[in-house]
């Protein structure tokens, strides 16, 4: 508020009309932006009397000046203001030797662990929160023991100990760990190519081949993320809720001055505890409680108490069961891992959580209708399984329909069986199709102006290297203005990264007998380019991810039917590069919020990715030669569940191909109705929103998120979705509205 008062005193808000016009254009359809403020802005801009007789509307004009000051000096979103500072210290050390030392060690360690245990059942996976927690004591230790000695390079002094370990160093280490945690997706291709129980292509052991395709898929995402900064990073409405949780933990360690603030809480309570102490208490209690639903009394995890009423009632188990049923249960679990399985109810906006639930709830009736009418012969199968079945009701054996070289054998297919899907799985595929068409339609109708301005700005930046109209408008955001203190990464850096990645990917595919055209790289990237911006905007605003895996498999399977490996490459370049681009964009937003210089962020992403790729490929080289790996007799539980699933999908979509299942005369061709349904639903909600723009229901309805919720079946169900709704309502509708300071102190750290 002090910044806003000084802003008003300096007279910088004397003419709020231009600012409010820009704010209204950016946020009028933004469900995260407070509707009462939008209504006030519309009243201000739409009333000519305000400008002709300002003395009669002094109160409204003063309110607009205050709003102009608030929006200009801080984020318009309370959840961002609660964890992100609206000031910066450009002199704070960032890319220090100790940060690179700690970050590189953590990146190597997390890459090795995740790669080595990826094929174990169950797998062991280290999330980025672990290095973020460990980085603080490691940084403070080096702060104590290292001397202040160093060297000067290009006019900049690099010291072993430049002073106190700070938040920017901490976040740089976190970003380095973030980019190193994922195993290259192409490793799965190598697994199914090389091992004799799959396609038995011994040449796939070549380390040059493995490195080229791994480096290509890993680095293409950076090129796309960099080119999408003006769409997914700079705009204030791209909040990225998951990033706020990471920043909250960072703030808990470093914000000593604000952490001791006294805030009122529910039931007239007063909270003096710091965010760090609260996190430690919550972490300890959650660690103790974890053992009860997961090991000591597992009924707390799947609390299917309704089936206890009539244990022999099959229909009751089908509808209300939490493990094999549809999970229609008002109190389905006491396991926090299940509550937060799909969305984080404490930090993801309530409208997003509720839309997600609505999609799952209404699609449940489609599942029930399909099952109980025996449509597609689903009544003979489990209602909610994600496994394909044969006509005997047994799990589909994909190896039965291929020859010794892994090529589709039509005679074997005719002698065996077409694949059959459960009712839940059919609905999942139908709404996948609906979600893809809805995403493109939604992006055009709701965000075409922002996308057009972003495209103009990218072109202007490449052509003239000057700030364009869009950048000026985005500068309403205080964080963009603060980042002007640092040199930006030029577009051509990212374009070169993209070009090199494409080139080495095409070389890797062309120089070895993959039976795949190198053009698959370009086709996959083309698919990604169509979706990356609308998907990214939806993810950044709602916290809900739209993945392209099914669409990439569908298009790839139609294009290269009978060639499983070619389909896998198309999937890698169409789906995985898009997922990487969004993940890297989220990291860029982290750096943006923390005011880390963009060029430091660039190298903090590139170098650990390069190192982790070499480590992952080295681990792969060792593991593929382990005797009996990926078999029932594998040592160390290296049973390769992920590899087996990947192989099944490769044969199902690539070898058999979607034409036999979804083509003309295919058993599930009617589910393609999802494509027009997706377009129609978006058009309906868009029309309702245009007709009644002030209606809170239509403004907060998000058809794409609804359809994402409809994907929550097979093998999951409502028991994994509904529990988040009351928690989100309590967090966002009660705590945040009535006790904002308390909500800002306790909810972000509790999200871990």
TrEMBL record:
Question: What subcellular compartments does it reside in?
Answer: Membrane
Q: Where is the signal peptide?
A: none
Query: Main subcellular localization, coarse class?
Result: membrane
User: What's an example GO cellular component term for this entry?
Assistant: membrane
The UniProt transmembrane annotation reads 97-117, 278-297, 354-372, 426-445, 492-513, 520-541, 602-624, 636-656, 668-689, 719-735
Query: What InterPro entries does this protein map onto?
Result: Oligpept_transpt, OPT
Q: Name one Pfam family in it.
A: OPT
Q: Which domain of life is it from?
A: Eukaryota
Is Zinc tagged as a keyword? Answer: no
Q: What keywords sit in the KW lines?
A: Membrane, Peptide transport, Protein transport, Transmembrane, Transmembrane helix, Transport
GO terms for biological process, alphabetical: protein transport
- Decide whether keyword Nucleotide-binding is in the record: no
Task: Tell me the GO molecular function terms.
Answer: oligopeptide transmembrane transporter activity
Q: How does it sit in the membrane?
A: Multi-pass membrane protein
Q: Which family does it belong to?
A: Belongs to the oligopeptide OPT transporter family.
PANTHER family registered for this protein in UniProt: ISP4 LIKE PROTEIN (PTHR22601)
Q: Could you identify this protein by its name?
A: OPT oligopeptide transporter protein-domain-containing protein
Native organism? Podospora didyma
């Amino acid at each position: 508020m002090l910044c806003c008062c000084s802003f008003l005193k300096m007279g910088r808000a004397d003419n709020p009309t231009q600012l409010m016009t820009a704010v209204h254009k950016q946020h009028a359809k933004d469900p995260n932006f407070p509707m009462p403020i939008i209504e006030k802005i519309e009243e201000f801009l739409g009333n000519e009397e305000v400008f002709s007789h300002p003395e009669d509307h002094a109160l409204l004009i003063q309110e607009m000046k205050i709003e102009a000051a608030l929006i200009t000096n801080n984020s318009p979103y309370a959840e961002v203001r609660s964890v992100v500072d609206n000031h910066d210290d450009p002199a704070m050390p960032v890319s220090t030797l100790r940060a690179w030392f700690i970050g590189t060690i953590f990146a190597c360690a997390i890459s090795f662990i995740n790669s080595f245990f990826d094929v174990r059942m169950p797998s062991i996976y280290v999330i980025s929160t672990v290095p973020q927690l460990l980085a603080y004591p490691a940084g403070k230790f080096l702060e104590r023991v290292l001397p202040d000695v160093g060297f000067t390079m290009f006019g900049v002094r690099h010291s072993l100990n430049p002073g106190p370990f700070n938040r920017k160093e901490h976040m740089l280490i976190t970003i380095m760990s973030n980019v190193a945690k994922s195993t290259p997706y192409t490793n799965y291709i190598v697994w199914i190519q090389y091992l004799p129980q799959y396609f038995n292509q011994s040449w796939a052991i070549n380390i040059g081949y493995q490195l080229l395709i791994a480096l290509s898929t890993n680095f293409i995402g950076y090129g796309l993320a960099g080119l999408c900064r003006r769409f997914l990073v700079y705009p204030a409405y791209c909040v990225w809720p998951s990033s706020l949780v990471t920043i909250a933990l960072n703030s808990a360690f470093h914000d000593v001055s604000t952490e001791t603030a006294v805030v009122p809480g529910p039931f007239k309570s007063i909270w003096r505890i710091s965010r760090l102490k609260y996190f430690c208490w919550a972490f300890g209690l959650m660690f103790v409680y974890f053992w009860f639903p997961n090991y000591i009394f597992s009924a707390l995890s799947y609390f299917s108490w309704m089936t206890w009423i009539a244990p022999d009632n099959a229909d009751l188990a089908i509808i209300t069961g939490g493990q094999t049923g549809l999970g229609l249960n008002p109190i389905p679990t006491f396991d926090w891992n299940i509550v937060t399985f799909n969305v984080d109810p404490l930090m993801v906006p309530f409208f997003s959580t509720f839309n997600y639930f609505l999609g799952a709830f209404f699609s449940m009736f489609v599942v029930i209708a399909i099952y109980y009418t025996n449509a597609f012969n689903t009544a003979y199968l489990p209602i909610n399984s994600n496994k394909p079945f044969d006509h005997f009701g047994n799990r589909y054996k994909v190896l039965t329909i291929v020859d010794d070289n892994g090529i589709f054998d039509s005679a074997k297919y005719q002698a065996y069986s077409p694949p059959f899907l459960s009712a839940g799985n059919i609905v999942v595929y139908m709404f996948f199709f609906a979600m893809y068409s809805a995403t493109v339609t939604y992006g055009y109708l709701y965000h075409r102006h922002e996308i057009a301005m972003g495209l103009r700005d990218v072109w202007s930046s490449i052509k003239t290297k000057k700030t364009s109209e869009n950048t000026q408008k985005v500068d309403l955001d205080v964080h963009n203005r603060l980042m002007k203190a640092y040199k930006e990464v030029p577009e051509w850096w990212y374009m070169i990264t993209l070009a090199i990645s494409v080139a080495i990917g095409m070389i890797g595919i062309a120089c070895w007998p993959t039976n795949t055209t190198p053009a698959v790289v370009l086709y996959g990237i083309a698919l990604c380019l169509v979706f990356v911006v609308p998907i990214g905007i939806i993810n950044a605003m709602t916290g809900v991810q739209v993945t392209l895996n099914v669409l990439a498999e569908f298009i790839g399977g139609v294009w290269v039917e009978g060639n499983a490996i070619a389909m896998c490459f198309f999937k890698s370049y169409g789906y995985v590069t898009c997922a990487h681009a969004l993940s890297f964009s989220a990291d860029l937003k982290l750096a943006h919020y923390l005011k880390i210089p963009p060029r430091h962020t660039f190298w903090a992403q590139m170098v650990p990715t390069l190192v982790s790729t070499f480590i992952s490929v080295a681990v792969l080289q060792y593991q593929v030669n382990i005797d009996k790996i990926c078999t029932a007799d594998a040592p160390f539980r290296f049973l390769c569940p992920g590899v087996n699933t990947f192989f099944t999908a490769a044969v199902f979509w690539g070898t058999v191909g979607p034409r036999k299942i979804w083509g003309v005369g295919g058993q599930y061709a009617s589910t393609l109705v999802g494509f027009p349904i997706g377009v129609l639903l978006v058009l309906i909600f868009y029309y309702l929103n245009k007709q009644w723009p002030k209606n809170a229901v239509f403004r907060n309805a998000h058809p794409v998120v609804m359809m994402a919720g409809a994907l929550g079946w097979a093998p999951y169900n409502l028991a994994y979705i509904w529990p988040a709704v009351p928690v989100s309502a309590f967090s966002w509708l009660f705590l945040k509205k009535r006790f904002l300071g308390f909500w800002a102190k306790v909810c972000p750290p509790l999200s871990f």
